[in-house]
Sequence to fold (116 residues):
Amino acid sequence: MKKYISLFSFIALFFVGMQFSAAQSSDRQQSAEAIAKQKTHDLHQLVTLTGDQQGDVFKVLVDAEQNMGELRKREISDKFRQEGMKTLDMRVEEGLKRILTPSQFKLYQNSLESKK
Fold:
């Protein structure tokens, strides 16, 4: 009887550990939409976006996050990955420049410079 209880306890702990591990890995790998939503919210907190601006910024950031995810997945050299990241950063900057007002964009650029 002790063997069965020990076996059952071991199996129960094994499944609890598996669920905990799965929950941690799903937290680390957020979707592109979730990341873009958080970045849009952060930008809104910084420059107070209008509703239309929020939607447009979200689209630009989702596209960028999806492309970054693809760059991370691919088996390419670091040089090509860095070039791809630079290109994506330029596309995001161009998109935001189109969407934001000049004063909002200047505030955004100042915040980027202060983070560096």
Summary: The two ends are 64 Å apart (CA to CA). The CA atoms of residues 41 and 67 lie 20 Å apart. The first helix runs from residue 2 to 28.
